[in-house]
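User: For my dataset I need records formatted as: sequence, then structure tokens, nothing else. Please produce one.
Assistant:
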Amino acid sequence: MSYTLRKRGNTWHADCVDRDGRRHRTTTGQTDKRRADIVAAEWFRKLGDPTYRAADATTIRSAAESLIEELRQAGRSKATIEHFYRIKLSHIARVLGEDTPLAKIERRKVQGYIIQRGKDEGRVEAYRQQGTDGAPDASKVRKAGGNLRQRGLPGHAGTLRHGVQAARATH
């Protein structure tokens, strides 16, 4: 498996076929061939890296389902799982998008999540009167990052944790 560089207009583009026979193309965004080669080599490395591919294929929905299953196997009560974790995870899925790959969650998205949950806080007051907790749950994003780290995805878990810390520092 290797990549090729082709110039299209002023910009260099990389092209390769992966082990599964799927063709991948991307722009390097570079007009200089040496710089384009550096960008393409990094892209190619990530494309072939199983850890990166696993994180890229893992969505918020699949990570949440995995966490719920782990909690069940750890012996957490059904009530705790359903009334606490599932509610908190549903907020993450609603705001960030349940089909969002974990590899695409960046600081900006985590900050947007925290801001949105803060806006939701006004709507949550009615729920609190009914006995449902709806406080902003950045700690759940951070916990999800720790769970990712345990699954061997340290770079992406760190991205989540860093984004939460940075977003809190701006508020």
